[in-house]
Amino acid sequence: MRTGIIGTGRIGSILARILVAAGHQVVLANARGPRTLDPLVAELGRAAWAAHPAEAADRAELLVLMVPFERVRGLLPPYAVQDKVLVDATNAFGGPGGVPADLGGRGSSDLVAEWYPGAQVVKSLNTMHFETLAVAGTAPGERLAHFTAGDDAKSKEIVAGIISDLGFAPVDTGPLHSGGILQQPGGPLFNRPLTEAQALAWISH
Question: Is the pTM of this model over 0.90?
Answer without folding.
Answer: yes
